[in-house]
Design a protein that fits this description.
The structure is a single chain. The chain has 225 residues and is an alpha/beta fold. Helix content is 36%, strand content 18%. The chain has a single domain, classed as Peptidyl-tRNA hydrolase (Rossmann fold). The chain has seven helices and seven strands. A seven-stranded mixed β-sheet has the order 2-3-4-1-5-7-6, with helices on both faces. A hairpin with a 2-residue loop joins strand 3 and strand 4.
Length: 225
């Protein structure tokens, strides 16, 4: 079972183990879309993870979400696999606390977790699939890695573009203009398909298929806060 809490926090781990009794293993796959809760953040660049998850929910016929372990969660089935759809409600930078708790509760191993996030290092409209790796400067991914105790989980990153020397926080928490919104809508459709492709064909095939979409998608160590 995944660690959930980093080794340097044994007291918090013991408290968690007392409070939450893990369910019997159900062999689920988790897809988590990252974002910030609240109407003021709806459809901002930082919330493309939430918006992409809504597309996946529509595809799977999941119409209702409940609240559990500081997340909105829904369940569906895809290609015979039971899917747990997750929108952490912790705010972006603490996403791992909710995702880690749910992974521990449902006994979901990190390699069966897919995370969808924004990325300012990618041009608007591009996506990038990875099966593991560093946070790349993204604080939400960084917290997930810390709470799971590993970076060995798949992620689909949706490019929201950089702001150059402008206000980074204002950029990611802002809503795109009509032109960028159209590109993001297309990118989120691709991200939905890429996440489902990971389930059906594996991350390597998803990378081969989707990392070529939308033109050049160069790696960068800079990502949204």
């Amino acid at each position: 079972m995944s660690k959930f809490f980093p080794p340097e926090d044994p007291m918090f781990r013991r408290l968690f183990q007392k409070l939450i009794k893990p369910k019997k293993e159900e062999h689920m796959i988790m897809i988590a879309g990252l974002g910030n809760p609240g109407k003021e953040y709806e459809h901002t660049r930082h919330n493309v993870g939430f918006d992409t998850l809504d597309r996946i929910a529509d595809q799977l016929g999941v119409s209702s979400f409940s609240t559990k372990l500081r997340a909105k969660v829904g369940t569906g089935v895809y290609q015979g696999e039971k899917i747990l759809l997750v929108k952490p409600q912790t705010y972006m930078n603490l996403s791992g606390e909710s995702i880690g708790a749910l992974a521990a509760y449902y006994r979901i191993e990190p390699e069966r977790i897919i995370v969808i996030s924004d990325d300012i290092a990618l041009p608007v409209g591009n996506i990038r699939v990875r099966k593991k790796g560093s946070a790349g400067g993204h604080n939400g991914l960084k917290n997930i890695i810390q709470c799971l105790g590993t970076d060995a989980f798949a992620r689909v990153r949706v490019g929201v573009g950089d702001c150059g020397k402008g206000d980074l926080v204002g950029h990611v928490l802002g809503r795109p203009d009509a032109g960028d919104r159209k590109l993001l809508e297309e990118a989120m459709d691709l991200a939905r398909d890429a996440a489902l492709c990971i389930i059906e064909k594996g991350p390597d095939e998803a990378m081969n298929l989707y990392n070529r979409k939308g033109g050049s998608q160069n790696e960068s160590t800079t990502a949204a806060p």
